[in-house]
Amino acid sequence: MGPRASEEDLPEPVVRSGTRGLSVRSVIPNAITAAALCSGLTGIRFAIVDDWEKALFAIVLAGVLDGIDGRIARLLKAQSRFGAELDSLADSLSFGMAPALVLFLWALQDLPRFGWFAALGFAICCALRLARFNAQIDTEDQPHKSAGFLTGVPAPVGAGLAFLPMFLWLATGNDWFREPVLVAVWTALIAFLMISNLATMSWKSIRPGKNLRLGVIALGGLIFAALLTEPWWTLVMICAVYLALMPLGVARYARVRRLREQAAK
């Protein structure tokens, strides 16, 4: 274990050295995790002064950093229990507490009582999801993961989906997307999806054929360019694609489960 790239990664043995404390090479991935934590919390600072674009960029940057710290840890063979715990704490703050407070300051504070409960529920559900993941990290019997699926919506993805009304508001300028009731209901829905038992597709389960790989590389470049030129519409599109793939993930896992049941007979 250690800083992980995502919840898709299977548990790896912790590398222990003969000396106490962190090794020099383990400082790099943990520093990236700390940077992700600082970036997520800085989003709250920007939200306090109503700088919504910078607030969203800070939390999106936290997601990018969270996606690379685990890969760097494995590349350097610097996995550690300390890194695993730091990563979970950073995820809870950057993708649970920070989005909840940003959404509250943006729209939910205009909805007395229920707006705060929606934000609070999102933060709690994110923490519960991460706690469930950590509790199952050494469990061998994980039907979803063994089939290449995730259980529920991952925390960074959940934060991105929760911001969908903000993305649409920034892209269109339409204040309807800032309607407190709409934002509260949407936030509660994403919070439920994070702690649900729905089988969701992981990036590892998407494997394009050899004849499509160059096209996928080109598509990745175009998406990056789109993020630079039209960031809000691009993020809306990414959210829409993920939501559209969720029923496909449920259907695919149902098929895998039927095949397992037939094989067990």
From TrEMBL:
Lineage top rank: taxon: Bacteria
The CDP-alcohol phosphatidyltransferase C-terminal domain, residue ranges: 212-247
TM ranges: 27-49, 114-135, 147-169, 181-200, 212-229, 235-254
Keyword hit for Transmembrane: yes
Location of the protein in the cell: Membrane
Topology of the protein relative to the lipid bilayer: Multi-pass membrane protein
Keywords, in A-Z order: Lipid biosynthesis, Lipid metabolism, Membrane, Phospholipid biosynthesis, Phospholipid metabolism, Transferase, Transmembrane, Transmembrane helix
InterPro entries: CDP-alcohol_PTase-I, CDP-OH_P_trans, CDP-OH_P_trans_C, CDP-OH_PTrfase_TM_dom, CDP_ALCOHOL_P_TRANSF_CS
Family assignment from sequence similarity: Belongs to the CDP-alcohol phosphatidyltransferase class-I family.
UniProt name for this protein: Phosphatidylcholine/phosphatidylserine synthase
